[in-house]
């Protein structure tokens, strides 16, 4: 860390010494630049901490010390302030510091103030800044989180909520994170695709339905252990032995996964953050993951409740329909039974009428049931059918008719025959 020097440079305004003392141990960024090339003359520890301790040196132009500023507009602003002598101030200015995998997004409230020599000419620029990155990220985070909660409250489709959540986190992270949410099946044995808007389709298809188990990638292991699993380098981690080629094809180098748990502790799924370069999470990454894992749990539980409610309503509707069909069938059967009873009563009346009509016919001497060959046995028993036909016959032929001819019955006592038949049966 670079200490603030005790001596003032020649031509330096007296106020600079006071500012050096003031910002020496402050968390605010302070730097003194000199000349048109903006050579870093003095900076406080907060400045070097911000740009990286490995770059803590003075006596070099800012453009050389921080080459990533080229194209971001800050060097142009320094030129303008040096040229015009007019100060410049900005709020929540976004700056990308570092390069490659180490790039990070920061926000600052800062001022560029001209430094003047003894004759009033501009000799350099005084830079004072207060980092607002955490505040800015918190504002963005709460805004997106509030929008997600509103979606859940409106009972938006689960897929839309999870997709929006994944995209929100990807936009909040400056490290090129790719988010995936997998959902546990009802048996708690497999994980299925929930949302992963930035992962390749072939990768999402390949891991859809992966088993939950120890050593099954980051997500399968996190689901099995019910605890976060951090894999900083997929290429060397044993958990990814079976998926290493797949991850390489998808350009994935790190994966941090957290289990999504319901309030009762049951497994709902997993929340994963992928990176294209090997990387370990910082505390802010873990805090972000925990917040959105809890949000995902809320959305998934709400979805399960709604699905259960719809299923219960469907079962109730089905039961009511089944009851209605049963009632309709019972009414139909009852109507048919009543109709059969009416038909039977009408038939019985017809039979009685026919039998009464036959009662007035003379009683023959011989059996009338002998067919063409005839029968000389005495006619003892009278039989009738449901169409009103009747005849007298001997015992043998009457019994044969009753057995072999449908709807034949013995006439009642008033018509003769029944008593004789009963008496004969009794004698047997």
Task: Provide a compact summary of the structure.
The chain has 428 residues and is α+β, with helices and mostly antiparallel strands. The protein folds into 3 domains: 14-131, Beta-Lactamase (2-Layer Sandwich); 137-309, GAF domain (Beta-Lactamase, 2-Layer Sandwich), CATH 3.30.450.40; 361-427, no CATH class.
Instruction: Based on the coordinates given, report the CATH architecture of the largest domain.
Output: 2-Layer Sandwich
CATH class of the largest domain: Alpha Beta
Bulk shape: rod-shaped
Number of distinct beta strands = 14
Beta-strand portion reads 15-25%
What percentage of residues falls in helices of 4 or more residues?
40-55%
Q: Determine the CATH superfamily of the largest domain.
A: GAF domain
> Over the alpha carbons, how many angstroms does the gyration radius reach?
49 Å
Largest sheet: 6 strands, antiparallel
Helix segment count?
Answer: 12
Q: List low-confidence stretches.
A: 1-14, 415-419
Question: What would you say this structure looks like, in words?
Answer:
The model is unreliable at 1-14 and 415-419 (pLDDT under 50). Helix 5 (133-153) runs parallel beside helix 10 (283-359). A hairpin with a 5-residue loop joins strand 6 (178-184) and strand 7 (190-195). The strands form three sheets. Strands 8-7-6-11-10-9 form a six-stranded antiparallel sheet. It has a five-stranded antiparallel sheet with strand order 2-1-5-4-3. It has a three-stranded antiparallel sheet with strand order 13-12-14. The termini are far apart. The protein has three domains: 14-131, 2-Layer Sandwich (Beta-Lactamase), CATH 3.30.450.20; 137-309, Beta-Lactamase (2-Layer Sandwich), CATH 3.30.450; 361-427, no CATH class. The chain has twelve helices and 14 strands. It has helices at residues 14-23, 45-51, 62-65, 74-84, 133-153, 158-172, 201-207, 217-225, 244-249, 283-359, 395-404, 418-427; strands at residues 29-34, 39-43, 88-97, 104-116, 122-131, 178-184, 190-195, 210-211, 229-231, 254-261, 267-275, 381-385, 390-393, 408-410. By secondary structure, the protein is α+β, with helices and mostly antiparallel strands. This is GAF domain-containing protein. Residues 144-310 form the GAF domain.
